[in-house]
Design brief:
The protein has 365 residues and is α/β, with parallel strands linked by helices. The protein folds into 2 domains: 194 residues, Medium-chain alcohol dehydrogenases, catalytic domain (Quinone Oxidoreductase, Chain A, domain 1), CATH 3.90.180.10; 140 residues, NAD(P)-binding Rossmann-like Domain (Rossmann fold). It is 26% helix and 26% strand. Strand 1 and strand 2 form a beta hairpin. The two termini are 23 Å apart. The mean pLDDT is 96.
């Protein structure tokens, strides 16, 4: 029996994100219906609202979520009714050329639910990142669910952030940047993703971790989560300061969580010879980058892009939840506001002012 639930939908480009009733169908083969418990407010959702991801309006927003499985489709064996899960947007296919090479984290054919959720008039909805979790219930592919049943309800908001932004940042350091013990790391941009990259560098054993931003509040939070030094880019040249803090050489790894041409150039020139640059911020499609080719050649090293922190949810989510429960990863520090489904648009405004690392919508327990 299809479910009628409340959800946050944006009907056209730059229209407000508002609560409306939607229809969630019974799950088909390989699909599950989940009751959403919490969902973080991520910049990507606003990109959908602003038409910067696509124009398949109307969009059902939300993707950074914990949920409880309530209904199984045919053939589902990896979860059972009642399981608490983190939702992800990389349900690997196991069959594409990346998966065949053992590079599941680069799967080119990730699974989403085959069916569409709809408005009550039958209009099909496009679910943000194949999830659509600003909703009381949503329909996903079973592979988008990673079980975390041992996590208490009080931790739902924190661990749900692993579903996107926090995983992206931590993975940029650990998986893409391959930070090693004793290395130096600089992170440019200390919003949720950048601060998570700071935490990831600390987990990996970096001994010099330099946080760069223009907001003193964000720099203060970065110190709480592992930064050993800070640079306010309004007051000092980031490249020169990073070099000064690393013996004049530059950092072993520089992570750009802003994704503007100017910050990428800072990352490029702030690294040591043969160092690694990691782009984890999502750039505006209109941006272009110009670098002297002799510098690209002469500085060596690697220029990498980090997709979802190059994570494998089935491997990385449980590992990071374990570190959280051991007290080695402070996910609670990222939850700076708890809000409700009808306040998502206001949460976007709070995010844009830089007042939070993450607002989290709480729907159930």
């Amino acid at each position: 029996m299809p479910h009628t639930v409340n959800a946050v939908v944006v009907t056209e480009k730059n229209a407000p994100a508002t609560v409306t009733e939607i229809i969630v169908p019974d799950p088909g083969p390989g699909e599950v219906v989940v009751e959403v418990l919490t969902c973080g407010v991520c910049q990507t959702d606003q990109h959908f609202q602003q038409g910067e991801v696509g124009d398949n309006f109307p969009y059902l927003l939300g993707h950074e979520a914990t949920a409880r499985v309530s209904q199984l489709g045919e053939g589902v064996t990896n979860v059972k009714v009642g399981d608490k899960v983190i939702l992800n947007w990389r349900a690997v296919c196991g069959e594409c050329r990346a998966c065949a090479k053992g590079e599941l984290k680069y799967c080119f054919n990730t699974h989403n639910a085959a069916q569409k959720m709809t408005l009550t008039d039958g209009t099909e909805l496009e679910a943000a990142l194949g999830i659509g979790a600003f909703a009381e219930k949503t329909l996903v592919h079973s592979g988008q669910c990673t079980v975390i049943d041992e996590v208490p309800d009080t931790s739902n908001a924190a661990v749900g952030l692993l579903g996107c932004g926090i995983m992206a940042g931590i993975g940029a350091a650990i998986n893409t940047g391959e930070v090693k013990r004793g290395e130096s790391v600089a992170v440019i941009g200390c919003g949720g993703v950048g601060t998570a990259a700071v935490a990831g560098a600390k987990l990996a054993g970096a001994t010099t971790i330099i946080a760069v931003d223009i907001d003193p509040r964000k720099l203060e939070k970065a110190v709480e989560l592992g930064a050993t030094h800070t640079v306010n880019a309004k007051d000092a040249d980031p490249v020169e300061t990073i070099r000064e803090l690393t013996g004049g050489f530059g950092a072993d790894v520089v992570i750009d969580a802003v994704a503007r041409p100017e910050t990428y150039k800072q990352a490029f020139y702030a690294r040591d010879l043969a160092g690694r640059v990691v782009l984890v911020g999502v750039p505006d499609p209109k941006f272009t980058l110009e670098l002297p080719m002799i510098d690209v050649f002469g500085r060596g090293g690697a220029l990498k892009s980090s997709w979802y922190g190059d994570c494998l949810p089935s491997r990385d989510f449980p590992m990071l939840v374990d570190l959280y429960q051991q007290g080695r990863l402070d996910l609670d520090a990222f939850v700076t506001e708890r809000t409700t489904l009808d306040k998502v648009q206001e949460a976007f405004d709070t995010m844009n002012r830089g007042d939070v690392l993450r607002s989290v919508v709480e729907l159930g327990a």
